[in-house]
Design brief:
Shape: globular
Strand content: 35-45%
Structural class: alpha+beta
Radius of gyration: 16 Å
Number of helices: 2
Largest sheet: 6 strands, antiparallel
Number of strands: 6
Order of helices and strands: EEHEEEHE
Distance between the termini: 34 Å
Length: about 130
């Protein structure tokens, strides 16, 4: 088994109207897997679990929306020595979210480009 960092892209899709801009999250999960293929499968499953509209209560800019799994932007192998324990000496868990970033892109094309891991202009939301 080895550790991987999977960048899972989730974006917000308006339910009832077209949209020009897309708000997205890149969630980085730590994955314990036998190989990269299994790590990718596990990361995709985590992304699919996050999909939905929170029973109809999810809003983006005040409008009904749903969170959609966009894909795996990148998958990196991690050094085992760096991942043996957290800062508080807690055991790391498979599927643990390590960090996330929030971005805005100005079109569906830019969203797809981001998901593929290609260069694209984004607005980084802090």
């Amino acid at each position: 088994m080895g550790w991987y960092a999977a960048s899972v892209v989730m974006y917000f899709q308006l339910e009832d109207e077209p949209q020009a801009e897309f708000y997205l999250w890149e969630n980085v999960y730590l994955i314990d897997a036998v190989d990269a293929a299994q790590a990718r499968q596990k990361a995709e499953a985590l992304g699919r679990l996050e999909e939905g509209d929170d029973d109809g209560s999810l809003r983006w800019n005040g409008k009904p929306a749903r969170q959609v799994f966009g894909g795996i932007r990148k998958l990196l192998t991690c050094s085992p020595s760096l991942l043996s324990r957290t800062a508080n000496n807690e055991k790391l868990e498979d599927g643990m979210e390590a960090t996330y970033s929030a971005f805005m892109v100005s079109s569906r094309e830019d969203l797809d480009t981001f998901i593929r891991g290609e260069p694209v202009k984004v607005i980084y939301e802090e």
